[in-house]
Design a protein that fits this description.
The chain is an alpha/beta fold. 35% of the residues lie in helices and 27% in strands. The structure holds NADP nicotinamide-adenine-dinucleotide phosphate and L-homoserine (HSE).
Length: 432
């Protein structure tokens, strides 16, 4: 095909990520055009508010608030979507793909909820749909699961996969920064989602884990398959006690496979200080993929922010533009065929940290130990801390031996009904 005038891109979104993509496309010389070997032109850019000041200088007439200017333009070859949210993005993807446009996106929500359908629509229309930036910012894990690691039977994926929560937890643990202040910093740095509830309640991580598990296991998973707990229930003393026991608190996203199926879980966990994941700090993300052929492969890098995310989007854009340049047919990810069961969280078997606020009087510990024993839970160690004379209360921290989640939930219910127990302060799972 004669690509004399080059390849045309329609960009949807001009925020943290879109600004980085636009400035790379508009730079002279453009690193994208140089790597593709022909001009890659930014033809239109969709935003919500055209009057908003932008930190990238745009040629006149390029901004639009009308999605049809991109979707109905037959000269646009590639749609790059960096708006976020599933509505209206999913509909735009369907229309673009059906019109023969290739798509590059950073949208984990769309890919988690409707990725399987969109990938098969893309295959049917012989166009490419790439989404490296949807997981792990600048870490190339999506492409590796689709291609370089595709031969493996994956046993597990253990990750820190949300930059905002890892930034917040690092600030709370190392500088004792308050939760709200650390979140505001993460928002200022461009790490957080438009609604940061998605970050702090583990929704963003659940989307990303859905995407990774779908690619790794070749099976269609949904965000609802992920057991999810956010970081908002953590209190400053949890970080203190964790440190005393030799652990860090990290929000983990884990996919584990055994003969019974796959378990998908996102929650804050105690991780031994010597473990690699315990030492992933700030906006950094990490992932450990354990496969039958490759063994354990580690990924580590910045998981959010303009630079790393732009790197991932532009990598996909360059790959797509080279394909357009060569009139090549996209390979696409593996077929999603294997039906694997999703194992419920009740079946988890691990160690637990339990923090209780109790009346500071004789016999309390014995009652709690009995409730745990009745549920077949064995205590590994106990700390009694922070006795408050004025309220005659104390804090007890229990570390258990491995136990079944359903037993721990039953025991906590019974413990919360004991008269000397004022509050179950927290229960945090331990991931060794
Ligand atoms: P952002 O700063 O909030 O920017 C969103 C952009 O999209 C804005 O320019 C906004 O227009 C535009 N937009 C949103 N909804 C629109 C709609 N319905 N119609 C037209 N334009 C719309 O978001 P971001 O941080 O760049 O994130 C974008 C995407 O990348 C999200 O899917 C996010 O999850 C993903 N991502 C972000 C990061 C990160 O570190 N920020 C990392 C990886 C992936 P206005 O400017 O006019 O408001
Ligand atoms: N809000 C996300 C995060 C952006 O903090 O990880 C990167 O996907």
């Amino acid at each position: 095909m004669n690509r004399g005038s080059g390849i045309n891109v329609g960009l949807m979104g001009l925020g943290v990520v879109g600004g980085g993509v636009a400035s790379a496309l508009l730079r002279d010389p453009s690193p994208v055009s140089a790597r593709v070997g022909c001009p890659v032109n930014l033809r239109r850019t969709l935003v919500r508010d055209i009057s908003r000041p932008r930190d990238v200088e745009l040629p006149p007439g390029i901004l639009t608030t009308n999605a049809e200017d991109i979707l109905d333009d037959p000269d646009i070859d590639i749609l790059v979507e960096v708006m976020g949210g599933s509505d209206p993005a999913t509909d735009y993807f369907r229309r673009a793909i059906s019109a023969g446009k290739h798509v590059v996106t950073a949208n984990k929500e769309v890919m988690a909820k409707d990725g399987a359908e969109l990938m098969s629509l893309a295959r049917a229309n012989r166009v490419s749909l790439l989404f490296e930036a949807s997981v792990g910012g600048g870490i190339p894990i999506v492409g590796c699961l689709m291609n370089e690691l595709a031969a493996n039977d994956v046993y597990s994926i253990r990750t820190i996969i949300n930059g905002t929560t890892n930034y917040i937890l690092t600030r709370m643990a190392h500088q004792r920064t308050a939760f709200a202040e650390a979140l505001a910093e993460a928002q200022g740095l461009g790490y957080a989602e438009a609604d940061p509830t998605n970050d702090v309640e583990g929704i963003d991580a659940a989307y990303k884990l859905t995407v990774l598990a779908t690619l790794a296991y070749g099976c269609r998973f949904r965000p609802e398959d992920v057991y999810r707990q956010g970081i908002s229930a953590l209190e400053p003393q949890d970080f203190r006690y964790a440190r005393e026991f030799g652990y860090s608190i990290k929000s983990l996203a884990i996919a584990d496979r055994d003969d019974g199926g796959v378990q998908l879980r996102v929650y804050p966990a105690l991780v031994p200080e010597e473990n690699m994941l315990a030492n992933v700090n700030g906006v950094y993300n990490a992932a450990e993929v354990d496969g039958d052929l490759c063994g354990r492969v580690l990924f580590h890098g910045m998981g959010a922010g303009r630079g790393p995310t732009t790197s991932a989007v532009l990598g996909d854009l360059i790959e797509t533009a080279r394909m357009v340049r060569d009139d090549a047919v996209p390979g696409g990810p593996r077929e999603l065929s294997r039906g694997l069961a999703v194992r419920p969280i009740d079946e988890l078997h691990t160690r637990y940290y339990i923090r209780l606020e109790v009346a500071d009087r004789a016999g309390v510990l014995a009652q709690i130990a009995k409730a745990l024993g009745d549920c077949d839970i064995s205590i590994a160690s106990v700390l009694q801390k922070d006795a408050h004379a004025e309220t005659q209360s104390a804090e007890i921290v229990i570390m258990t031996h491995p136990a079944r989640e359903s037993s721990v939930q039953q025991a906590l219910l019974e413990i919360s009904q004991l008269s000397p127990v004022r509050r179950v302060g927290n229960m945090i799972r331990i991931e060794e």
